[in-house]
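tRNA pseudouridine synthase A: structure tokens wanted.
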Amino acid sequence: MPRYALKIEYNGAPFSGWQKQAELPSVQRAIEIALDRLEVGEHQIVAAGRTDAGVHALGQVAHCETTRNWAPFRLQEAVNFHLKPHPVALVDVAQVAEDWHARFSAKERRYMFRIVMRRPPVTHEAGLVWQVKRPLDIERMRAGAAELIGHHDFTTFRSTICQAKSPMKTLDEIRIEEFEGASGPEMRLYVRARSFLHNQVRSIVGTLEKVGVGAWEPEDVAKALAARDRAACGPVSPPHGLYLASVGYPEDPFANSCND
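Answer:
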């Protein structure tokens, strides 16, 4: 059966998360239903990573199999037609080898977190950013973030319901940028690693926000990490500022894009 890589963009607000759950709306189920309408029968897609309820994606990657041999562009167009009116879109499709796997072939995941700093309520980007009402000190946050780079026990920064066998992870990058956005001063945090623990990124962002407002010192981040205790973590940031930005592979399956 032909196998296809799917690059997916979605607004996570209406969904219980990526993974399908009984009687709850999910991104995975929305795409599988669209595929069912193209080819009768059950379809199951596998993603590079699961996102929680309310988390968005700019470049989630999944794979599926079909009975027909579809031209990638035609498959993209057909699935997008049947995804309406869900805020989900296939932004690229590529045919891949039968042993290519969206999750196990991936070498890294990249997340982006958006924070808007202003007092009036955000209107146009409500549900797409985390709004904080005080300015954040970017240099303090960068200093705190530097304490987390490398291979560590991230017990402090993972959910108590995380199912990973080990809390050991290697964080390759945390980059923080600030600029004037459409809704006011905006800060974006870019986090890169091969894989992440459940709630790891949101726990890191919530902790760094405490550093940015002056409630924590940058070195307190290192102390929290060393504690290996969930109780030592700062607050978990809300899901609606988080985006799965992209997934990296040894060879980009979308190098010869069907949209080129």
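The chain has five helices and ten strands. The chain has a mean pLDDT of 95.

Cheers.
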